[in-house]
Amino acid sequence: MEMLYVAWNYLRQGGWVMIPMVALSLGVWGLILERWLFFRDMEREDPGTSGLPGGGSLPPAAASRLCAPVLRAWGRQRSGEAALDGRILDLHAMRQRKRLHRSLGLIAALAAAAPLLGLFGTVTGMIGTFEAITFFGTGNAKALAAGISEALVTTQSGLLVGIPGLFMARLMSQKARRLQNRLEETVMAARRWPSQRCMQ
């Protein structure tokens, strides 16, 4: 209970700018959690890998939930022509690549916006400080402290949201690229397989 009071008091000192700051923070970390769970799920083994086309000629990543749906959809729609089958495979792989990179740009943009929102709070806090000086002079420390406190709290909050958010956005992008490389490796192996079958 005491922690909640401390958090509420901290947010109250930052003024109204803390409302969008909290919403932005929840948005950033909600998207990061969603991407982390998605990537973890993509690395797991797909339960329906027994019927994949290509058999043992495909890399181990083909059995994951990242690659197996692509190969299954491709297996159902194959025509027997190597060129057309390659296009069908590319289409399904492209859809999976889009899923991998979804929301990553938004995470980076929201994380980068947090320090700017904190800077906006700094400006509004300093404006409040100068207004207090105009009305009360420099003798009223309590009136000055409110504006300075708002400026510092919003700046600190913006950095606390922005720095870890940008760091996590970078990690998520690297994870997406690694998974994409596995997908490309599987697609390249699958491309060779139908052409070999057609030559037989």
Residue windows where pLDDT falls under 50 for at least 5 positions: 194-200
Please give the largest β-sheet. Answer: none
The separation of the N and C termini measures: 73 Å
Residues in β-strands, percent? under 5%
Element pattern in H and E: HHHHHH
Number of strands: 0
Radius of gyration: 26 Å
Count of runs of 4 or more consecutive helical residues: 6
Overall geometric form? rod-shaped
Oligomer: single chain
Helix content: over 70%
SSE-based structural type = mainly alpha
Mean pLDDT: 84
Summary, kept brief:
The protein is built from six helices and no strands. It has helices at 2-13, 18-43, 68-77, 82-101, 104-136, 141-199.
3D structure, described in words:
The protein is mainly alpha-helical. It is 80% helix and 0% strand. The protein contains 6 helices and no strands. It has helices at residues 2-13, 18-43, 68-77, 82-101, 104-136, 141-199.
